[in-house]
Amino acid sequence: MRYAYGYYKKAADYIKERIGEEVQFGLILGSSLGGLAEKIKDPVVIDYKEIPNFLLSTVESHAGKLIVGNLGEKRVICMSGRFHHYEGYEFERLAIPIRVFRLLGVETLILTNAAGAINRDMAPGDIMLINDHIKLQGQSPVRGQNIPEFGPRFFDVSDMYTRDLRDLAKRVGEKESIELKEGVYFYASGPQFETPAEIRAMRILGGDAVGMSTVTEAITAAHCGIKVLGISLISNMAAGITGDPVTTQEVNEVGEKSEEKVERLIKQIIKEI
Asked: What number does CATH give the domain 5-272?
């Protein structure tokens, strides 16, 4: 399915009417990490279903709301709940939120997710900065006719997860006494969790953590010239490592226990950008 520039502009214009001035900082919250949205002051809350040409979140733990307001001294636009290929969306449609963000003025984007640890040196509750990703499944979100208003047909992604932002996050982590790991995020389409054999293959290929989100957003942001900081909360050990089954209950429990730490980290990062 092809979308012209005006398709995205219609969504952005509706949001602009609701929020007024442009917003420089974007934030997308992953599974069990939606609590930070409640810390946004003087919020304008927009249900996804109200936005023309936008998508709807079908994941129960995702609020499905766009929130614009102040986080510390910075004005941010936050997606509390994101969209995934496993919900039935074509990869091209997953570009919609990020392109709308760009039209709203977003220059820096923080992506969070809950991920399973492939690297045995990581454990549930750890925070991993994404320095790269591996995506071997599905199409690119910017597949199809290029829209030059967003970016060039061919574009570099060697610094997709912006090094300067990772360095800033590390400095903030040291100040806040929050230990940060760093690694490669392996994209899996889901919704089933990965098999033990798949995890072994991912480890051989260089993956440190695995999840079902984030990558399409990062690719679209790179095309739009948006800087990206990717943060994974390690919510469980990936399949086959401990012998225990992977469950959404475990993911949610670890998210609840670690939420304050992740929120503090993000708030301080935004403050110092």
From this structure: 3.40.50.1580
